[in-house]
Amino acid sequence: MSGLMLASLLLPNSNAGKVPPLSTTQTMALYRRSIERAQQDIARLEKDPATQRDLQALEQAVARAKEPTDLLRNPRITKLLMEALGLADQAANGGLARNALMSKLSDRQSLVNRLPDQRWKAAAQRLDFAASGLAKLRDPAVMADLKDGILQNRRITAISAQSQAVADALYVRDLPEGKTPTLFAVLGDKVMRRVATTVTNLPRQLALQSVEAQARTLGARFDPAQFAEPKKRDALINRYLIASSSAQAGLQVPGGTGSPLLR
Questions:
Q1: CA-to-CA distance for 64 and 184, rounded, in angstroms?
Q2: Which residue, 72, 77, 75, is CA-closest to 103?
Q3: Could you say which DSSP state residue 15 is in?
Q4: What is the pLDDT of residue 11?
Q5: What is the pLDDT of residue 250?
Q6: What φ, ψ does residue 220 adopt, rounded to 5°?
């Protein structure tokens, strides 16, 4: 699946302050296990009654709808679509979802082409509501892909509750190979930005600068090709996991034993 599907990675860790931070060894172990157990975790989610009800609700709503706006006026279905499309953190923005997903991709001035968050454009392209209505969404292959997006989102959400850094690393691991993002794209993507600024030890105050100034500062320390080239990406992930767990260790309560979830 694409990295864009892993929308929950962009959300702050909801368990921050509740679960003790992981050590570097625990973080690396969780990352490896998350990769190894991906199919098992998905199979378990497919049997979850609440998830089954949501997937059925999405399929039934699409079958009943006469036009895309019928779906986008339904808060539950909009939320599910946002999950499926890698925009789970935008589920509450129903108005933005309607306007962005109904935008004409061919119009350079349309909302979706002006939004800095490129996930919206990718989502609009996948659905193609403005040009083809519900035709794409009713394609069985597209529906299966969206359902997989929901399952993957929920899997990653569970992982992020243990370690946001591991969730971020999985997002980076699934980015398209060979497609180097611009510095502006890195800055506009919450996960890539977090990874790049963490490994370069740039402060959060960087966000107070203009976007152009931020790009110059980041570009002097970071090569975006690390997100696109497999070997460089693997090295980047390792550096990020180590840097993140080291930073978290500074918040570790003396005598802490790490996350009980990993015992």
A1: 40
A2: 72
A3: T
A4: 41
A5: 62
A6: -75, -20
